Amino acid sequence: MSYSQALRSIITTPSLLSSKKHLFLLSHMRANTSLMGHLLGSHKHINGYYEMHIGYYSVKSLMRQKILYSQEHSLKKNSVYMFDKVLHNEHHISERIQKHPKSHFLISIRAPEFTIPSIVSLYQKLNPGHELTNPEFAAAYYCERLDLLAEIASVKNFNYLYFDADAIKSKPTLTLQKISQFLELTPPLSTKYEKMHNTGREKAGDSSSSLLKGEIIQSGLIPIQVPYAESQYFKDCQSTYNKVRILLDSKAQQSVLL
To answer: What angle do CA 193, 198, 203 make, to 5 degrees?
Structure first.
């Protein structure tokens, strides 16, 4: 985005100059992040609900986020937060943004026995020629992403709330209560959410029919058969998950665990 484009956006949308807090969900693919984004984005004080696929390097990046979002959506009157979820290592979060006084973070990861089959299934349906249809490549993405989340969380004096990704379905009331308190949201987050412009659309998050229900369908964790469970790459995923989960919980200001 050029300087002239940014200036034009500010002139046509002066509300972009209003100060906002910035809320980030740091996670990985297939970790209930579309559901979480809709729950957050349905709150009257939060703008945004989907992944914007951009990096955050400086204060300019925060303004860029607002401008890009405003090109398709109007900012809510009296809103407090701009939201984005960051799921890929190529979308950088700088230490400067981590420690920025207006930045607020949630971190969430999901166990590999649910995540890896879900990634593979998604790409088999959407893009059969993609490398992530191969569970070994999906496992590599997963481990690399968790390793970077551990690195991000290890930055000194970095505050965030950690929650197990499946807690939003198995413990929805407690999870939303903790997040609401952490973000000082009034009223608190609801288990129901709005269906948005991009809800269910491919490349905008979860395109499954379950997201169209408009509310959390509470469920427990049902064990699934993973055909490659004995492979070394899957065992590496389990080891990485256990190690990173312990670290994320230990360094979090608050946690919600299964």
So the answer is: 125
Whether 189 contacts 40, CB under 8 Å: yes
Based on its alpha-carbon atoms, the radius of gyration of the chain, rounded to whole angstroms, reads 18
As given in the structure block, the two tokens for residue 93 are 């979060």
CA distances from 117 to 127, 224, 227 (A): 15, 9, 9
pTM recorded for the entire structure: 0.92
Distance CA 240, CA 237 (A): 5
| Rounded distance between C-alpha atoms, residue 152 and residue 27, angstroms | 11
List, in order of start, the domains of the chain with CATH numbers: 3-256 (3.40.50.300)
Task: Identify the CA nearest to 169 among candidates 49, 74, 64, 35.
Answer: 35
pLDDT for the residue numbered 117: 97
Q: Which tens digit of pLDDT belongs to each residue from 112-132? A: 999 999 999 999 999 999 999
